[in-house]
Request: fold
Amino acid sequence: MSDDIQTLLDRLPRLGEGVLVTLEMTIGGAILAMVVALALGFGSRTRTLWVRGPSRVIVEFFRGTSLVVQLFWLFYVLPVFGYELQAMAVGIVALGLNYGAYGAEVVRGSVNSVPRGQWEASTALNLGQFHRIRRVILPQAWALMIPMLANLLIQLLKGSALAYYIQLHDLNFFISQLRKATSDTIFSYSVGLIVYFVIAYLLTLGMNALEVHFKSRLGAGPTLREVLRVAPVPTTEKAGAA
Amino acid sequence: MPDQDDRHTDTGKQTGTQTGTEDIVTTDKTEGAVPAIEFRDVVKRFGDNVVLDGLNFSVAQGDRVTLIGPSGSGKTTILRLLMTLEESNGGLILIDGVPYTHEYRGEKWVEIPEKRRRVVRNRVGMVFQQFNLFPNMTVLENIIEAPVHVLKKSKAEAITRAEELLEQVGMSEKRDFKTNQLSGGQQQRVAIARALAMDPEILLLDEVTSALDPEIVADVLGVLREIAETTDITMLLVTHEMQFAREVSNRVLMFDHGQIVEEADPETMFTNPTHERTKEFLKAVLAH
Reply:
């Protein structure tokens, strides 16, 4: 066991590199997924058929096919057609499209949950299409979306472990190298569990903070600063009950 | 009153032979002032339910018109059509003589694109039963959002105007509050200020006191009464507050099944209605 730990300590820089690759894929994938989710989520609820139709098809396609197969397709099949992407790019694109498709449903559902009166007030004030979404609808939809997006983000992190199969030296790769070096399966995979868990937990904390932020912007709950403050928060006086 | 000189309108009533081209005819000014609102044969269906079946009526500039009638008679639909919250299924809606949502190109009844609708929509404001303030913004932000981004006013100018309006509706001290820290009556007063900040020529009031506690209704009506007295905004209101309708409006339209069954000044309408349907309705409403 102490040998195992020594081996792990010796390999810490490589663990760092593996974690960086995993984070790079996770964050890159998450950003792309969010863009895809917003585009397809709003696309799915437009009145124009030629926007809604393709949006729905893309969502169903990427939700309905395996992430591993998508990854392999992009990595092994796409070059056949003359488009060769770097392994990292393949990972990010596959994760982004796959989780973006799930995210699109989250976006669509949350946007639909914003009361209709908010859209109507936006029309009455003559706010433009994009303006109303950016300034009125999304700020309210975020608060609803964040918990579900947090779920997807954690799944995306774990999905990034597939990077190992397209020859990326990510955390998963590091774990298997560690196993080879120590010949201790229990130790290596336990380290793997812990490191993934720590990353996932940090992401969760970040998303929780975002949720608090968006809720407080809607006047529901304390601000992030109040939550993080060590001293107890004096209950803010609710005015208005006239 | 807005300048009419350079305003054109597609009359659409002409049995034009040049299909495909836009018939642009200058508004005939000799017939007197152009009505602020005009409905021509407007049809609105929800599925099989025909709410408006060829409705015709007009509202002169500066008029205060109350729409009364049983629920389902189409009153709110009229306001919602004017705010483009619903799409009509036929006929023309004109604002200051300009087709607003649809027009005739030759014989063909076509939708007017959003870009042109937006120009006309700037003249129309609406206050809702459920207030519909934006919860992600403060009171002040709610009021200046559209003036800054739609009317392209400077922020300073918009804030000055917003503060005046907040003063007018008695909400100055709530300027920086989030909207869910306000009571219903306070929210509605902010919503009125928000609509007025767009300097509308036409203000639509859709049962603005229906969601309020009875003791607060008077405050909100007081604010509206003052606006009616101090401005020349054309108002179209749907309300169950008959006393308020009587004080504020100069014309009352009684609706039933999407048609105007009676039209009179408030005094006549409320004291001496002629139509049987109106009598029944008023009796039912005034009973409680």
Remarks:
- Confidence is low (pLDDT under 50) at residues 237-242 of chain A.
- Chain A touches chain B through 26 residues (CB under 8 Å).
